[in-house]
Design brief:
There is one protein chain. Strand 2 and strand 3 form a beta hairpin. 1% of the residues are buried. The protein has one domain (5-87). By secondary structure, the chain is α+β, with helices and mostly antiparallel strands. Helices cover 30% and strands 10% of the residues. A three-stranded antiparallel beta sheet has the order 1-2-3, covered by helices on one side. The chain is built from two helices and three strands. The chain has helices at residues 5-13, 44-60, and strands at 37-38, 76-79, 85-87.
Length: 88
């Protein structure tokens, strides 16, 4: 079982992406998007939520605490339409 002929063609030749209005991405770069609130700018309530979320992720084994790392990623807090928070 493998990829279809069409998928193999996409992998070999690439796929041209267009915006919803039909513009090609090579015409102009995409608009910046809102990434949420940086942790350094978070409110006390958002910081408390992040601490609980990090504890939940650590206890589930999704993340683990380390002393040093060569990998760093910013944490952004993104409010969802239902008023819940999410990290990116």
């Amino acid at each position: 079982m493998g990829a279809s002929i069409q998928v193999l063609g996409w992998i070999k030749r690439g796929v041209r992406l267009t915006r919803e209005n039909g513009d090609d991405f090579s015409v102009s770069p995409p608009r910046p998007f809102h990434q949420g609130v940086s942790f350094k700018d978070a409110s006390p309530e958002e910081r408390a939520w992040v601490e609980k979320e990090l504890e939940r992720l650590q206890s589930s084994g999704a993340i683990q605490e380390v002393d040093t790392s060569s990998w760093i990623s910013k944490l952004f807090i993104v409010p969802k339409p239902d008023k819940k928070l999410e990290t990116t």
